[in-house]
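Course assignment 3, question 2. Fill in each field.
Student: A.L.
Task: Predict the tertiary structure for the chain below.
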Amino acid sequence: MLALYEEYGLLEYLEQVNALIRAGKHFGITCYFYEKYDIRFMMHEHSRRLGINNKRQAIMAGGIRRHFPEEEELEVIVDGLNLGRGMSFKNVAGGLNFGGCKATVTMGPLDLNNMEMMGFLGFAIDSTRDMTGPDMNFPTEMSDVMHREGYSVQYTGGPGAKTGETGKPTAYGVYLSMKQAVKFHEGGESLAGKRVAVAGLGAVGWHMCEYLLSENVKLFITDINNATVQSFITQHPDRGITAFPVGDFLTMDVDILCPCAIGGIIDDETIPNIRAKYIWGSANNQLRASSQEEEIRLAKRLAQRGICFQAEWWHNTAGVICGVEEYLYDGTPQTLQKKVEDILPTNTWKNLSKAKELGITPTECAYRTCEKIIYG
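Answer field:
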């Protein structure tokens, strides 16, 4: 195998990838390639530990997202590994006995009527033993097609599922946990009058904004698609909503920053310019880091500036709870809502309290809680 990499001058590249796998303590990456449609599937497996004896076909749980063909492969791998690592911890936070992983697929737009494409993606997920749900750049309808055509029952979160798509429960869980964070620091959980900036009005961000408006916050919104921003404002008239440029998000003069789109936005360069008291959103991997240690370091820098932040996988776990409620229990919106309300606020309060008691950041505290479970 190494001789093959050497023949094509890829030994150095292979070592780069292996170094990333080692740094994140990953199990590895499983790859499939469908030449006819140039589909490159990678399953980034972080840990199988929690799911290895769960008596189900799927021993891991993590979403599937699409990357564009022009994207650099190494960047896709970094994204997948970071997300897969986060899923291991997210599943612990949700009380779910699945290991953590993330599937990335580099391809053009998915044609839901192309059964060759759909069959390949169904085969890949089944072969890697993942329970998944459509993530960025994949339509949620793909799950319904997988079920209808008999390609895979491992896909969840389609519009046809009784529990529905995962965006709204994810937003609800983040919203409930945000209220707990405010209560912890200010004594009351009401968000009324708070200035909140939300970046990203996708499947989660749109619903997040609606939950925030239910408390009469002063809402600032942005998205890479300006038409989406204008549509939200039009559908919520006379609410005093302010649109702002995407690039201004981290420097907004607000109480709460709520990132609900792409991650990797908080680093050593951006932290000094943040003016908010809280960073609390649904976006995965908000800290620009490729390892647990680097996340903890950046979280400390935020804490030193008096900013309340905890690793997002501790409070954005309602999406995977939704998937499991469909996959295992054939649940309903009511059974799902109860689980979200039982788990997310309590977890957040316990984590913030324990972090304060130990004198560490909420991010480090959440990692400590999960490490023994995942790594043994």
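Instructor remarks: The first strand starts at residue 28 and ends at 34. The CA atoms of residues 14 and 140 lie 33 Å apart.
Grade: pending
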